[in-house]
Amino acid sequence: xxxxxxxxxxxxxxxxxxxxxxxxxxLVVRDWHTAEDVxxxxxxxxxxxxxxxxxxxxxxxxxxxxxxxxxxxxxRRKPESVVDQLxxxxxxxxxxxxxxxxxxxxxxxxxxxxxxxxxxxDLSVADVAQALGVAEGTxxxxxxxxxxxxRAHLPELALTEELR
Length: 164
Hints:
Layout: H1 2-29, H2 32-49, H3 58-76, H4 100-105, H5 109-120, H6 125-132, H7 136-153, H8 155-163
Helix pairs in contact: 1-2, 1-3, 1-5, 2-3, 3-6, 5-7, 6-7, 7-8
C-alpha cells in the first residue's frame, strides 16, 4: 500500500516537473535526446531516494540531480573538437537572427548550467549555489562571465540591454 502511494506521488511529480527538468538539461547538454536520457537517469536516482526527500525540497533535490547528471555526462563524453580560438563574434549587421543556441555552446559546461538555473528556472544565486555545491560568489562571477560572452556573440542582446 505504501509503495503504491509512493509510486503514485512520484509519477505525478514526474508528469508535472519532468518537462521543466528536461528543458534545464537541454540547455546544459544542448541535445534533446541526451537531455531526455540524463533527466531519466537523474529521476531514477530521485525515485530511489523518494521516501527520504522532504516534499518541500523535492524540486531542489531533483534539479540538483539533473544538473549533476548533465555535468557528469559532459565530463565523460569525448570532446567534439578542439579549436585554438573562439569563432569570430557575430557581425554588426543586425539582419542576422539571434543564434542563442550557438552562443550558449560557447560557454563552458558549468557556466551553461548556471545560466540555465538562473534564467530558465529563475533561481536565486543562493539556490544555484546550493544546487551546484559552489559558493555564491562563484555563481555571481560565472554568471557575469557567461553574460559577457553571450553579449559579445549576440550584439542584439547587448542592444536590448542598453535600451533598458
